[in-house]
Amino acid sequence: LSAFKDVLQRADMFTHHHIERETLSVREKMTNVLAILSADTFTDFVTLFTVEEGRVGVVVTFLSVMELSKEKLIELVQNEPYGPIHVRARAQIETDELLS
Question: CA–CA separation, 2 vs 15, rounded Å?
Fold first, then answer.
């Protein structure tokens, strides 16, 4: 929660005051997140976010990560309370087993 709060605060720095409708797709963002991740190494949770997309972009990315976790396509790890969160894609073998 703390990491998500920090990302939202950074995203607020790039917020503009003009109103513009943005079409951000959770499914498209899920694809982008999976393209970033590897099954071999962990990636810092905060690097998945593009703060230049603003608050809405951060929220869509967060929802995408939560959906990928729910579908067991990614693994989220936090080694200690309030510590950094790390993410990696699940191995293909694990993914195939889940589909069986």
Answer: 20
